Every structure is written in C-alpha cells, then in structure tokens.
Amino acid sequence: MGRRKVQVDSRVQKLSDASVLCRTLGHARDILPQGRARRAELAPQGQREQILRCSRCSWTQPLLIDSATGDVIGAGSGKYPDGYLLPRGSGRLPRSEARKELFARLGV
Ligand SMILES: [Zn+2]
To answer: How far is the CA of 45 from the centre of ligand 1 (A)?
Structure first.
C-alpha cells in the first residue's frame, strides 16, 4: 500500500490540545466532592449527585444517583471549557479526525 497524504478536518485546528486529547482518548474522569447543601437537598429523596470532572480539559457533568441502588437516574448537560467545542451547528467530529490531528500536533 502506498503512502497517502493525511488530510485532517479543518475544524480541529482551533481546538485546544486538551480537547484533541480528550476527543481521542475520552475524558480523564474524576469525581468532585459533593457540596454539603446539595447533599442535604437530595437526601430526603434518596438521591445523591456525583459531579464528574475531566482532569485534563476541565469538562464537568453532574449525574443524579439513586442512593440505594447506585444507579444513575439522570445526567445533567456537560459543561465544556473554551476551546473544546466545534462551532455551533457544524456537526460532530469523528474520533478518527481528532486522532489524526493529535499525531500532527505531536509530530509523530
Ligand atoms: Zn476532557
């Protein structure tokens, strides 16, 4: 097979390095501690909140958990840092495009 020229979706060029990494590997998720007030608010309903945070790009997303079963019963919308998202309405970016951009930025 011959060597083909690599073309990368031009939308990735404006993304932050963290965004390109997370779009390639997935978010590096950690759990933020739940605030005391929020815990007290949810406890009577038998629920807890778990806030996921990416240690690389700082994306966050709250999850609502059933305390008894541990099941996720709801997910809030994710908050993305500047430089993460594509322009509104421009569609999804395939992971393969982020991967090619990652190789280009790393020079490998
Ligand atoms: Zn991330």
So the answer is: 31
- Protein residues within 5 Å, CB atom, of ion ligand 1: 22, 27, 54, 56-57, 59
Ramachandran angles phi, psi of 87, nearest 5°? -55, 140
What is the tens place of the pLDDT at every residue in 18-71?
A: 999 999 999 999 999 888 999 999 999 999 999 999 999 999 999 999 999 999
Model pTM?
A: 0.81
Query: b/e per residue, 48-76, with b = 16+ CB within 10 A?
Result: bbebbbbebbebbbbebbeeeeeeeeeee
